[in-house]
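Running this now, will post back.
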Amino acid sequence: GSPHTTRVPTDIMAWGKTVGVASWVDRLKADDQTLTSVTVFRGRLFGPAEAAEVCDALRSNTALREFYASGHAMDVDTAGKFSDMLAVNKTIESICIGDASFGDDGVAALARGIASSASLRAVDLENKGMGDEGATALGAALAKSKVIELNVSRNDALTDAGLAAVCLGAAAGRTVTSLRVAGLSVGPKSVAAVSKFLASSGGSLRRMDATDVQIDPDVIVALGVALRDDGGEGSGSLDELVLDGTQLGDDGATALAGGARGRE
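Update: finished.
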């Protein structure tokens, strides 16, 4: 198809060419200050060679704030290139790369860059095939990162223990204010980690999206207790908990309502 560019008021550049990425990569290399956000549409050409060009250009770029290339398969070596880029780039604030085949190895490779980035504030890892091994690496990175918004939704291989590792890392880092865990299995380990996240001195969590999560009634009660106990001096304060599509049951709803009242 022919090249096309669409400009929207936020300067997000939505682009895609079947013949390659040369035109907009040239703009990245030239440090074009008007190019602040790039989205690679699904179905467009974005393999290892194109990704390497982007990473090379972004190492010295000071304009781009957002890079979104979700739905494109990415090998571990390429994930490592993005990680190395994040370690030296000073302006990228938001990133989403890879598809459901990204897996633990891809997440672990990217985690190095998440930990070392000076500017990264939002990481979207929804439906990236992440399991507990990748989650453990991510949790370790979050303890050192400056990430504010994190999305780990719909990673079917992620167990309660893996989600707990993510939450504990976020609790240690004390920067994450928004956490999305939609479609995951939430068990006692992850609820205990969320409780620690909320109760830690200087805790930061304000919004948690738990849409369509799988959660047992007794775990819902534990979550209600965590919400009730969040409110001591210096602790965090969850402002919003989204539970759309989650089966709470009467006891669970009562427990959560009690937790919410206890924080008022």
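The first helix runs from residue 22 to 29. More later if anyone needs it.
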